[in-house]
Amino acid sequence: MSAVASPGRRAPEALKPEDVLLELDDIHLRFGGLNALSGVSFKVKKGHIQAIIGPNGAGKTCILNCICRFYNPYQGKIIFDGRDISHVATHRVAELGIARSFQNIELFRGMTVLDNIKLGHHVHMKSGFISGGLYLGKAQAEEIRVRTEIEERIIDLLEIEAIRKKVVGTLPYGFQKRVELARALAMRPKVLLLDEPMAGMNLEETEDMARFILDINQEWGVTVVLIEHDMGVVMDISDSVVVLDFGTKIAQGSPKEVSQNPHVIEAYLGSEAAAHSKLGL
Amino acid sequence: MPCGLFFSSYRKDDAIFKTWWLRLWMAAMFVALLVYPLFSAEANSLTGMNVTNLFNLIFIYVIGAHGLNLLTGFTGQISLGHGAFMGVGAYTAGILAKMGWPFFVALPAAGVMAAAVGMLFGLPSLRLKGLYLAIATMAAQFILDYAMRNWTSLTGGSAGLTVHSATFFGIDLNTDESFYYLALFFAVLATLYLKNVTRSRTGRAFVAVRDRYLSAEVIGVNLFQYRIMSFGISSFMVGIAGGLWAYYITIISDEHFTMWLSVQYLAMVIVGGLGHVLGGIFGAIFFVVLPELLRIPAEALTDIYPNIFGIFASLREMVFGLIVILFLIFEPDGLAARWHTVRAYWKLWPFSY
Amino acid sequence: MQEFLQLVVTGLVIGSVYALVAMGFALIYKSTSIINFAQGEFVLVGAYVCLWFYSGLGLPIVLAFLLTLVFSVFMGVVLERLILRPMIGEPIISVIMITIALATVLKSFVTVIWGTQIMVFDPPLFSQEAIHFGTVRVSEVYLWTVGFAFLFLGVFAAFFKFTRVGISMRAVANNQTVAQSMGISVKKVFAISWSIGALVSAVGGVLVGNINGINIALAGFGLKVFPAVILGGLESIGGAIIGGLTIGVLENIMGSYLDVYLGGGVKEIAPFIVLIVILMVKPYGLFGIKEIERV
Amino acid sequence: KEIKVGGIYDITGPTSDVGKDYGTGAVAAEKYINGKGGIDGDTIKLIPNDYAYKIPEAVNLYKKYLSVDKVFVIQGWGTGDTNALKPLVNKDKVVFLSASYDGTLTDPKENPYNFFIGTDYSTSIRAAIKFAKDQGAKKFVFIYPDHPYGKNPIPAGMEYAKEVGLEIGPDQIVDLKAIDATSQLLAMKNFDPEFAWIGGTTASAAVIIKDAAKLGLRTKFVINCWGFDENLAKLAGEAAEGRAFGMVPVAPFGADVPGMKDVVASAGGQSYTVHYVKSWVSNLVMAEGLKRAKKAGKLDAPGLKAALETIKDFDTGGLTAPITFTPTDHRPNTTLTIYTVGKGGSMQKIQEVTMPRDPKQAGK
Amino acid sequence: MPLLSVNNIEVIYDDVILVLKGLSLTVEKGQIVAVLGANGAGKSTTLKAISGLLKTEEGEVTDGTIEFDGVRINGMDAERIVRLGVFQVMEGRRVFEDLTVRENLIAAAHTQKCSRGELDTRIDHVYSYFPRLKEREAGLAGYLSGGEQQMLVIGRGMMAKPKLMMLDEPSLGLSPLLVSEIFEIIVKLNRDLGTTILLVEQNARMALNIADHGYIMENGKIVLDDTTEKLKNNEDVKRFYLGMTDMGTKRSYRDVKHYKRRKRWLT
Ligand SMILES: Nc1ncnc2c1ncn2[C@@H]1O[C@H](COP(=O)(O)OP(=O)(O)OP(=O)(O)O)[C@@H](O)[C@H]1O
Ligand SMILES: Nc1ncnc2c1ncn2[C@@H]1O[C@H](COP(=O)(O)OP(=O)(O)OP(=O)(O)O)[C@@H](O)[C@H]1O
Ligand SMILES: [Mg+2]
Ligand SMILES: [Mg+2]
Question: Is D57 in contact with D11 (CB distance < 8 Å)?
Fold first, then answer.
């Protein structure tokens, strides 16, 4: 695994308040007797790719769910773009500029790829049930404008022209993941929350996905929060990493620092050598 | 300019009927529908059915079925109260007509009233999902039924409410043939509306709510708003159907809008095809025409064995049920879905694989 | 006070009739997640079959009753083979629609064979004399209903909680494809659960048929028990019982005390009003399983 | 020549328990009438169809009969569909004979083309009240289902009960499909009337009577025509004995009246209920009207209407009291027979009552 | 005779979409066989064709045969195939959400005629591999985290003790530590219990490490098949599945970006 600094990687540095896009402050989350998150705090810098890693069940997805307001932490604050969003309604979060993908694909399976992506644009469109029903003038113009934007920017970027009229439910897993990313992009996000975008992909597809994420981050300037178990990817593309275990943060820092942290190795990474020896290979 | 080219191609891609061939067909069908009343007498004697009446019923049911399809097929909320919502529309039109309102005001008012009531009974969708919601709307059916029956001062109670047929610029639309155009107009309007709304922003949000409401919320769809909106539009349409019904039958009572009607609407959209614009049309045709077709053998047999005609009546019901079952076994996604696969097959033929 | 007591007790015993039919419902839902709109027709068919064995063939009642149970199981199996099996893996709503059509078929089947006139168990199975508990009076047939309701409750609750077959049946309701991949025979589970559902309803049918005779109106029970099952929570057997009893009591009490103000007939819609109110507080009924909302 | 007659019956629907016999009776009557020479040489041809008590289906059938079969007379069934077809019947001018004996249909000013052959419900309720009063009742209660058949005669009953000075308790609603009426009867118990009216059908009447016995009420019940038939005794058993009184406009199947011979013969050994007889008489009267219309040379709806309105004291062989229609009053008669359930479940005739034919009451 | 042999099968979805176009593969008794391939190549479809689960997704084997242990199994019902000893661990964490973790495991042993005691032993065996599951034993499976669900799905496979276990991307969504453990478990199942394994994986490196034989699929066909030793040395495999650069070292994902983007500019 080579984590050699390549062109474009940003060095972690001290954060100025105006640079912070997203901040979690002492988040506690509980389900019955289970403490899913206990006092997690960290800051995400504008323009960074922030990775979150940790063993299964550590609470990574829970963090995204808290940010999207699916879950209500019983303690703690979430500040986005200088605004406390701890009490914003779930469907409002999108308007603020937070978009996400899901660990178990959550696409609208009965719809075409194009419609799925258009839906991402929902909050930026205006037509209502009357103008939409008449489908004349403004509503139609809007549809076509959105269509143009999506086709020319997102579909083109993610290289899914060929499948844009297909029904999502029948697509292979890898494409579905891509469509999910496309839908999130259509939301014109300031921050993109990605939950294991590379899971279930082979190497080539992982490379493609990594490339898309970097493009989105560098060319569109979108901040990315990335949960991923593929350490190769995390090491290579993230600017900074947070490590969770049992709902608490056990480490934070640059990929390199984190990967050498003994706690992290013990709880999460395991050493490759140990694994191989156990397998007897 | 390439940019301009793009634009026009997206717009073309956006048309409902994409090929000339299809457009020609649609035009031909429409013209046929327009001139049909001239041949109604021939149609009646040829088929042994009152064809114009069947057309009118189909048109009315198409409007209502579109409404329910929007709610159930597109938004994923089952309603067992649409019979009663139709009743609300019918009574509204009837009462307003009695107060002297012209029908082109009373009819939209019927839709609005039904929408209001539908939204009220749609409120539980804030918390209820799936079958729980379905049964809550069934409660609406029974409660509204009760109101129609017992609010005598308004509805005329069980004696019913007489409505004068619609007049349009002095023409009394009191024959089946004159009513035909009225119903046709609204059926076409409802179909276009459904088609358009489902391919625009609102309709996509509906389907999103149906498919995965959690991720719909994440992309900024206000679940509550859309669920209620769907109830509203849906009951508006079925309310219009009710208003038309009132003007067509010219007397209404609570017995017209029973649980059975609600179930019938649901059956129409399921057999027709949930979530397909064509579904409501196919469903309405199926449920209006099939019983009439089955009446032909029943009547013929009764002619031969009049003493046991009761058995033929029962058999007719049974055969009807069996046909519905068979249809669903062979085409569980509804007639519209079969239509689509057949079309897809022919498009690709002979390279169907 | 005495009147109130009588109302409550009558409500409970009527409620036990609802409970019994509701349980048939819940059993089918629990293991196939199908809402069976033909449940009322199962009640009807069960009642007619028993009547036919008893009055038609003149068999002793115990034998007639047992044969009815056998017939119900048979009916469940046949329905599975003919109707449900081809629908495995198809959209649930289509299957629900099929049960609506099935209701039509069963009902017309009954009218072809037995006609539409009211028939009665002759001689009656239960004494017409009311049984007195202090000042409260109850007909004998209702006591049997209560007994059967609780008997079935015990048996089936234990079955689903503890036996492996019970667990497999719940698995099928949850996800048919995955259940198949475990080697669980979805067909068998359907056959078993529809048989049980038909059996329980048949018992209900025999009992209700003894209250006021049998004709196709009996099928109306299918709709009446909806509030009961929903109130209890769709997949809960205990819930069906509690739902049934609650609805029984509520309709009696509300009917009796509100009719004066609302001009009568409250009894018929009272359950639905209560239902909406309760659902707004508990959206999955009293004991229903909350749908898992996770991303 | 053939005279076509439309028939709208409930064979498979919620009222099929009585509707099926009614339909069967119609077919038998058709055969009988044609066997007796038909309408002076013409045969009548009944086209019977089931509408399962679904109103839209009834409208469908009606339109088919008119446009395809070109009938001008229809035999109909329930209160719901008869009401629903009223405006069409008036507009299209079709003679409509219903099995709904709703008093509001008897006013020719409102409904010139509606006819039926049994004593109307309003007269029936008045007769019931008179009977109760004669038996010494002071307090009276109305029990009926939330259904047009149950509700329509209630205003007439109310008015008449006040007129004769009975004290009226709160109305009780018992659904047609009820299996229990305890709550309603307990509510009624506080008022403790000597007599109560039951406006439901047989099954719900049986429930009320059984529960009344169970709760030990002293109240006796006078029951409208669709609630008192051969089945009541079977359903209610001993509870009905001495407690149930039926207002019967048409003789029960097999009753000892001259006209019954043909009816029983037509049944070919089968046994039917009173509803068979009702239908029979309805067809008999229609045939009589057709004959008169043919004689007058006007074999169409207005002709038939006019012909029916000339019928005076038409003898049905004791199946009903003699029938009379006039251009201002379509009440067939105002005479009912009161029956009760005797020992062993037999139907016993108690007395005949004839109410005065008050012109003010036509259509009420 | 091989334990499983798939001969030239064709699979069609929805009566129109042809997905497998004459695919053949064999699995010898006691082997671990890996199937690699891009997204949409039809790997899952192949497994579903073998296990009989295609039917529930409107799919159909229209040509060719599938034989297991000498018995022809295509066209057979899924549950009968399971009874013969073929168990598929499906992709996408398909747990019974409304059942508890324990009940999920019990349901998986449906075809096993074992006593209660034996059942408990097996459950404990699963827990010994996945202690996390024991902690969540009484909780509903629907609320487990993604990785925990994946553990449960594999645990279910272990409960069934099949002759042939087909695993569809078992390592999906697992932490690196667990990924190596999962492969270890697979090897153990194979060695200790003699379970034959057919493995579909995206983690090519691990898969090729533990398997005896490998198949590479593309577009509904097998394009390459060999022993894993040979595959590991195949240039294409090295490049496209193991991510080696020409120099034999692993590329950085950042470099990939520049490389590809340049390529895009060129075309
Ligand atoms: N809604 C819920 N109810 C109960 N428990 C929950 C719920 N959501 C999450 N949990 C539990 O919280 C813990 C953390 O879950 P989370 O999904 O955040 O894990 P994760 O870090 O994303 O793991 P993975 O990498 O496996 O996806 C898990 O043990 C899970 O079972
Ligand atoms: N139910 C279905 N209906 C129609 N097409 C389907 C269906 N399931 C899969 N397909 C199509 O079949 C092809 C193969 O799918 P399959 O799931 O077998 O791929 P896979 O190799 O397992 O991919 P992945 O690595 O993403 O899991 C895909 O092109 C997919 O679109
Ligand atoms: Mg996760
Ligand atoms: Mg796959």
Answer: no
